[in-house]
Amino acid sequence: MISTKGRYAIRFMIDLAEQPAGVPVPLDATAARQGISKKYLEIVVKLLVKGDLVKGTSGKGGGYRLLRSPAAYTVGEILELTEGTLASVACLNGDAAPCPRRAVCKTLPMWTKFDAVVHDYFFGITLADLAEGRL
Fold first, then answer.
1. Cα 48 to the center of its chain, rounded Å
2. How many whole angstroms from its chain centre is CA 22?
3. I need a surface site. Which of 6, 66, 97, 107 has the fewest CB within 10 A?
4. What is the mean pLDDT of the chain?
5. Beta strands 54-57; 63-66: pairing state
6. pLDDT tens-digit profile of 31-60?
7. pLDDT tens-digit readout, 15-36
8. Cα separation of 95 and 106, whole Å?
9. Is 54 left (phi over 0), alpha (psi -120 to 50) or beta?
10. Burial bucket for residue 79 (CB in 10 Å: 0-12, 13-18, 19+)
């Protein structure tokens, strides 16, 4: 399940994508438009800045802006940054220890295919798709 953090990160990124390119957007303005607590949004934005998805500038006229065009961001990368792995089971998590039952596990092929569907779905949707209502 995608947490509030992941959902808010996507909403924040869509909001930035809908603003004029390259113009810093004040956090309080985005929080008000999106109906998100500014305090909670600050936590989410820290992750996005650390992950090099957005850049913040302080002072008068400051705010946050995208570092790439909206078409260059995928929902998958935003979710992985804010949520961590999207793997459905622990054994498919990228840094998981090898499962001793891997060779005999009857459910592993199912989980592997499911994770591929989820990955392809989220990495196939761009921020531009969402901002422009193309879903």
1. 8
2. 20
3. 97
4. 94
5. antiparallel
6. 999 999 999 999 999 999 999 999 999 988
7. 999 999 889 999 999 999 999 9
8. 22
9. beta
10. buried
